[in-house]
# Entry
Amino acid sequence: MTIDKSWTTIRRRGSSNEFWNGLQHFLQMAKPFVNDRGFIKCPCRRCLNNASHQLEDLESHIFRNGFMFGYNQWIHHGEPATANAGTTVAGPSGGIHERDEMFDVLDDIISEDADEDAVGGPSSNDQYDDLFAALRSELYPGVSSFSSLNFLVKLMHLKVLNKWTNKSFDELLKLLKLAFPKIDLVESHYEAKKLMTKMGLGYSSIHVCKNDCALFWKENSLKDTCPVCSESRWKLQSGKRLGKNVPHKVLRYFPVGPRLKRLFATSKTAKLMRWHSTGKSKDNDVMRHPVDGKSWQEFDKRHPQFAGDVRNVRLGLAADGFNPFGNMSLSYSMWPVVMTTYNLPPWICMKAEYLMLSLLIPGPQSPGKDMDVFLRPLIDELKELWVHGLDTRDAAYENGVFRMRAALLWTVNDFPARSSLSGWSGQGYRACPTCNEDTPSMRVIGKTAYFGHRRFLATNHHWRSNLQFDGRTERKRPPRRFSTTDILEQLRRVKTGIPGKHPNYGGVKRKRGDDELNWRKKSIFYELPY
# Structure
């Protein structure tokens, strides 16, 4: 009897029953030929029969990396050397978790890493072995259509949707273990989170100075005191550390690059990432998406190489503060920083599932002028995405690999958040960022009032001569438009302040000079090279 080997050439391994069934048949065939230690040669595209693994590891290796080319006679895995490798017959049907939806998810994730290894060389990263073990495992004896991994993912999703606490999740796991002793499930939320992290759903925890002076990151990662104010990194009790090192503040950073790559990992979303080029309005007088606006078009003119590949990603950034405790009597301000992908069509790009949380800035105070301290990891990644990009698999075109680059086009925020992000103070006599130093304002009963709005009207508009506004006619022209050169010249005169809120360092209030106008700092966004 000849052996069906056509499954070894299938590209979309996760969505193919044929590949999965063929792989199971191959493993059954090879099982009697393991050595006395339980090892056998691995024919995946990394190992190429040069390395040996246990039989259960072969499944994840072949699924992750694909079956090696040219290995037509399986002489190391039970096929006689005289067998005819050229003919094929139908392979076996059926298998464990034949249509478990997690196969498609793992296939998308694994394909990204496989393409990176194809570009950068082989890797010995076996981070997916635990995932495949959970995928192979039946949730309960006799339940072959629902894997342990699938159940855990759905359970974690319910936790998020219904706002379960970690403690309640642990109690639920204990109850399930008690009610169903043979259930194959993790012991705690901590173990579940570790497993989810391997699917690319993790984040980086970066310690922050208690006064927001600096991050304990990169060159400061090993320090125990703040490089600015010398305050301890750890919470102290009676001048001593607690039994376990507990940081004062923790910034959660969710890298953007891997999630942008994930958008190209499936053919459906990979095609949607081209919508801004293929589906934009052909009517020049209609704007239904930012691609129809002048800012987008001007950016493309300035950077034709970036605009030349429609798969390069355009991003927007939004930030604002909120009280996570829902108790307005408790003063606490936490700031999420969210990224929007504008390559997608307008009915998708603003949906919650396509918004990417990139930073979660801790309280209890809002970052204020120290926003740049917290934005540092994101800005460094954005610079890397612009200069070098990431090798990304494009599932829409035969899984081709391209160099994806990304650019941040603008920020979306309210006026107070704009002050933190841009560096132009939203208070005082020159609060208007558009009018800049020409802001018309006056003091009225202890508050600053802004007037002169009629100057935006046409010069012959009858309201300009109406005396009912302030008893005077308006003859001034609209405020001048400040050029990029003008703004950069203003920023050149701004003095560099000390970050943080320590009363002896960054917290010391200083009087701005007249030449600094309303600028408090030069924003970190000016480090972006575009």
